[in-house]
Design a protein that fits this description.
Blueprint (H helix, E strand, L loop, with lengths): L14 H6 L8 E6 L2 E6 L6 E4 L2 E4 L10 H17 L2
Antiparallel strand pairs: 1-2, 3-4
Amino acid sequence: MNVMIDKMGRMVVPKPLRDHFALEAGSEMEITVEADGFRLRPISTGPVLEEKDGLLICTSELPSSAWDLGRFIDEQRNLRSKEVGGL
């Protein structure tokens, strides 16, 4: 996914990514400088897990659509296959 930087140094996060990570105007982001660029990550505003009635409950503000477990497992399997098998 490509984005452009305007004259003021701003870039627009594409809507599918904003929706996936529940980003809205005023959301805080963390920038990490790496050898070949930088990484932009949303900053969590509170604890993800909370104890209620003796159970740990996810209190994340991310919508349920952001928790696609099947896709996450597939992505991790593909990464591991590439690492192990050189595929």
